[in-house]
Amino acid sequence: MALQQLNREILECRKCPLLVEWREKMALEKRRAYRDQVYWGRPVPGFGDPHGRVFVVGLAPGAHGSNRTGRQFTGDASGDFLYPALYRAGFASQPASVSRDDGLTLSDLYTAPVCRCTPPDNKPTPQEMANCQPYLEREIQIIQPRVIVVLGKIAFNAILRIYRPFFTIQDGINITFSNAAVYNLQNSLPCPLPSGFWLVCSYHPSRQNTQTGRLTIKKFDLVWKKVKDLLEK
After folding, report:
1. Could you give the C-alpha distances from 151 to 11, 16, 21, 184, in angstroms and in order?
2. Rounded to whole angstroms, how far apart are CA atoms 182 and 221?
3. Mean pLDDT, 10 residues at a time, over the chain (233 residues)?
4. 3-state secondary structure of 226
5. Phi, psi of 85 (to 5 degrees)
6. DSSP states of 12-54
7. How would you label 122-161 residue by residue, b for 16+ Cβ within 10 Å and e otherwise?
8. Can you give 46-71 as a three-state secondary structure string?
9. Which of 21, 23, 53, 58 is surrounded by the fewest CB atoms within 10 Å?
10. DSSP 3-state assignment of 83?
């Protein structure tokens, strides 16, 4: 019920006038390949198993991906790279993610973006991300994951903003973003969020990374192997 209430609030959100204008503009103009489709054109809620032990944090809906389909990483190149990896790792029921009614389900994993509305050039402003941060905090508090996977540096920084006041890092460890890096964060102060979790870093599965070879299938599969190993600890 708490997650359903949160999703209702997300769907009604209009905190960022410029993002509201942009997402609706994209939904009206459309891309030629999708001109016969009805675009979602609203904030995109999280998606997956509400009891998942893994929480995946992305950046923002793509203008003609999630902003069109209404589901995280659905209908764009990032999802085309992400969901086959989740399928290989046993977290997704199928490797393809093309629409909200394609039958895809996630097991033991939930995913949500830092910013709920599609931003121009995929670059939300600091204020826009700050406006969305309470939604991400509440989702994590509700789901209480054991592992948080951040896809990209922006998602990494968002999680640190939420948790740094409450958590300490392993002695002698400098927490920095790099692909397949793993950190164990534990409470140092009372906190309503998970009492401790593993943070796993990955490059974002965008074309900018996958087509240049910065993120390969082998490198991405290593991230999900580490996630599965952590769940067995």
Report:
1. 23, 23, 26, 17
2. 14
3. 95 97 96 95 97 97 96 96 98 97 97 97 94 95 95 95 72 79 78 78 97 97 98 90
4. helix
5. -65, -40
6. T----HHHHHHHHHHHHH--GGGTTSPP--S----EE-TT-SE
7. bebeeebbebbeebbbbbbeebebbbbbbbbebbbebbee
8. CEECCCCCEEEEECCCCCCCHHHHCC
9. 21
10. helix
Distance CA 42, CA 67 (A): 7
Dihedral over alpha carbons 38, 65, 77, 182 (to 10 degrees): -150
For the record, the structure tokens of 109 come out as 């994993």
| Statement: the pTM of the whole predicted model exceeds 0.90 | yes
Q: Determine the residue type at 188.
A: S
Domain ranges for the chain: 2-231
CATH homologous superfamily for the domain 2-231? Uracil-DNA glycosylase-like domain (3.40.470.10)
Helices (H), 76-173: 77-89, 126-143, 153-163
Burial class (CB in 10 A: 0-12, 13-18, 19+), 232: exposed
